[in-house]
From TrEMBL, chain A:
<dbReference type="Pfam" id="PF00033">
    <property type="entry name" value="Cytochrome_B"/>
</dbReference>
<keyword id="KW-0472">Membrane</keyword>
<feature type="transmembrane region" description="Helical">
    <location>
        <begin position="192"/>
        <end position="214"/>
    </location>
</feature>
<dbReference type="GO" id="GO:0046872">
    <property type="term" value="F:metal ion binding"/>
</dbReference>
<feature type="transmembrane region" description="Helical">
    <location>
        <begin position="96"/>
        <end position="114"/>
    </location>
</feature>
<dbReference type="InterPro" id="IPR005797">
    <property type="entry name" value="Cyt_b/b6_N"/>
</dbReference>
<keyword id="KW-0408">Iron</keyword>
<feature type="domain" description="Cytochrome b/b6 N-terminal region profile">
    <location>
        <begin position="5"/>
        <end position="223"/>
    </location>
</feature>
<keyword id="KW-0349">Heme</keyword>
UniProtKB/TrEMBL annotation, chain B:
<keyword id="KW-0411">Iron-sulfur</keyword>
<keyword id="KW-0249">Electron transport</keyword>
<dbReference type="InterPro" id="IPR014349">
    <property type="entry name" value="Rieske_Fe-S_prot"/>
</dbReference>
<dbReference type="GO" id="GO:0051537">
    <property type="term" value="F:2 iron, 2 sulfur cluster binding"/>
</dbReference>
<keyword id="KW-0472">Membrane</keyword>
<keyword id="KW-1015">Disulfide bond</keyword>
<dbReference type="Pfam" id="PF00355">
    <property type="entry name" value="Rieske"/>
</dbReference>
<keyword id="KW-0479">Metal-binding</keyword>
<keyword id="KW-0560">Oxidoreductase</keyword>
Amino acid sequence: MLQKVYDWVDERLDITPLWRDIADHEVPEHVNPAHHFSAFVYCFGGMTFFVVVIQILSGMFLTMYYVPDIIHAYESVYYLQNEVTHGMIVRGMHHWGASLVIVMMFLHTLRVFFTGSYKKPRELNWVVGVLLFFVILGLGFTGYLLPWDMKAYFATVVGLEIAEAAPVVGDFARVLLAGGDIIGAQTLARFFAIHVFFLPGALLGLLGAHFFMIRKQGISGPL
Amino acid sequence: MSEKNHRVSRRQFLTYTLTGVGGFMAAGMLAPMVRMALDPALEAAGDSEFVSVGLSEDEVSEEPQRVDFSIELDDGWYSSEQSRSAWVLREGNEILALSPICTHLGCTVNWGTNEENPEEFFCPCHFGRFERDGTNIPGTPPTRPLDVYEVEVRDGMIYLGQINQRG
């Protein structure tokens, strides 16, 4: 049945070469854990992406219940955590996944560093990776405020003071991020927009570039 | 295809196992999220509470009288007071509390506001009319009687519950 549907579409649109081109690629021996178990370190990039996918999915579902408003934000998080069936699990996935992305990304960075994979001709991919690192840190920072509890509020107080400490542009950066002089309604709305639209957009674009380059250049050779 | 002739190739075996394991992981990941999204539709309807409308049983007569009252409405994380009204009247031994919402398109009906039919409920939007007991009058737009509140009498006072459809 499925095969027939596929054939029907393929006959008209010739989609086989498209996915073949993406899916069929060699996995060199030195990155295959079946040959050398220590090659599992090459999995960290994929693991990071896997957790990012979980973050995007669980985040999409969380926005069904969350409202970015200082009166109702905490109440809506409380509601989805305690009243909605499996809300606790989905928020748990997003909460723990947030830390896990950073851990995986860090391990991936270490692997790339210690295998020297950042060297020519892959410098650009390293640069994109560093940008990804900042985008993910930004996602963590903006997401932290959204529950609008004490921890969220004071973490953002500290975060914005760090921004303010920057020379010359400090004040400007702080007001821009907070959307005003105080951390309040405008800050929450702003952080929400950054967290669910701006940074995920940047993240997907950079991931696209990251993956395009690794396919174009292939995995770096053995040590 | 018989068991004997069907030899599973290495590639097929790997395809099956990888699809199976992948599908299992995807399902485990998506199940809580989907269940969470479906929650409002799967949640059992909460039984509504009865609220006093400040009218004693003795005050209810055959003549419909309008009572305004408010209920506590829980809407997820947001709870609010909502005003409701009802037309309360005595019908034989029964006390009827009619919802004032026209069963045609949801305008508000009033008692005796149509000069030609003073003993009827009248909806000004499309001239829907209802009998004193809420039955819709044939030939006017509404297709079913006015909805009724559940009525309870406690210590001689009228309490109204949820709204139910009739007919």
